[in-house]
Design goal:
This protein has 359 residues and is an alpha/beta fold. It is 42% helix and 13% strand. The protein has 14 helices and eight strands. α3 packs across α14 and α9 crosses α10.
């Protein structure tokens, strides 16, 4: 860890008062929201096909394009939110503002079912939603070329990805399926083993978290302007799910064509493919950030992956995946000294440094 941070020119992470411990780091943005500037992003609508399961027709996803704070863009970064999130969430806005201040153009994506693009596409998203995400990344490639042309550059801008929590899982799955869709990737607090994450959030110490997440997911699903089926109405209103696993069994797995929640968790978890050195070759240069005190996402999968990479590729310069484990930071917290609206959190500054090294 120390060597990687030295290469990136980033100081080691130190949590700051009063946000001590994984829970306070996780809840900081909820307990003390930042005063964000008005959203000046340009809305873009990107067509996506119908779900193969037939659960949702073709529609559009709403993305928001942010220009760099000054000068021509160095690259275009696609940002993906996590479970129950959107382009408006504080973590997305803060990371986007930090990247804009460093000279990047940013495309904040609202996944299927997320506000403010809820009216453009029916259904909800999943941890593996490549039929939606790959068309978005293709459009982002075109946009990177358009931005380069507007700036008088001969070569298209590099296309980078950043995923917060479940958004990082989605980008990993897309990159593993289609090599070359991204030129670089950064994932913060991203689940690699969905079954383990589901079991973690069901722990008694996490019941408040789970209740909050479930309320958001159920409300988001029932707010679908395209409607829900009678079966889904029954499951969500009359016998509401009491766990994330139950919600995925009732809604996510069948909507995305999985026979069971077990099959969904197995197929949509990137860990098994990431443990395969040949499968990892499909990834662009990728940095995974994970805190050991994350109350939502267990660090065991990232630790297993780190051990596997260390054992097999100690001298392999072609290894695309780097893993950074911190003792503290919570779930997408990483609040530290030096945080500001333009600098972002420590993890935002780490993402900036990672991208600049790639460029």
């Amino acid at each position: 860890m120390t060597q990687l941070l030295q290469q990136l020119g980033v100081a080691a992470y130190r949590q700051r008062l009063p946000w001590l411990g994984g829970d306070l780091q996780t809840l900081r943005d909820t307990l003390r929201p930042m005063r964000l500037p008005p959203d000046q992003g340009q809305p873009l609508q990107i067509p996506v096909p119908a779900l193969r399961s037939g659960a949702a027709p073709a529609g559009q996803l709403l993305a928001v394009l942010d220009q760099p704070a000054s000068g021509p863009a160095q690259a275009l970064v696609v940002l993906l939110h996590g479970l129950g999130g959107s382009s408006r969430r504080e973590g997305m806005r803060r990371l986007g503002l930090s990247l804009q201040s460093s000279g990047f153009a940013v495309l904040r994506l609202n996944l299927r079912g997320a506000d403010p693009g809820r009216h453009l596409a029916a259904g909800t998203y999943a941890a593996c939603c490549n039929s939606d995400l790959l068309p978005v990344l293709m459009r982002a490639r075109e946009l990177a070329s358009e931005l380069a042309q507007a700036a008088g550059r001969l070569q298209p801008l590099p296309l980078l990805g950043a995923g917060i929590s479940l958004g990082g899982t989605m980008l990993l799955n897309a990159a593993l399926e289609s090599a070359g869709v991204l030129d670089g990737l950064f994932c913060a607090s991203s689940p690699l083993d969905l079954a383990a994450c589901s079991a973690s959030i069901e722990r008694s110490r996490n019941r408040i978290y789970q209740r909050w997440l479930l309320q958001r997911l159920v409300r988001q699903t029932l707010a679908d302007p395209f409607g829900v089926t009678a079966t889904e109405e029954q499951l969500l209103r009359k016998t509401p799910p009491r766990s994330i696993r139950a919600f995925d069994a009732a809604i996510t797995a069948p909507r995305w064509g999985y026979d069971s929640v077990e099959e969904y968790y197995r197929c949509a978890s990137p860990l098994v493919r990431l443990l395969d050195p040949q499968a990892r070759r499909r990834l662009p240069p990728t940095l995974l950030l994970q805190a050991l005190d994350d109350p939502w996402v267990p660090a065991r999968a990232a630790q297993e992956l780190q051990r596997s990479i260390g054992a097999l590729n100690q001298s392999d310069a072609a290894e695309p995946l780097s893993i950074l484990l911190t003792a503290r930071g919570g779930h997408n917290g990483f609040h530290a000294s030096g945080d500001s609206l333009t600098a972002g959190s420590w993890s935002d500054r780490l993402a900036n440094a990672w991208y600049h090294q790639l460029l």
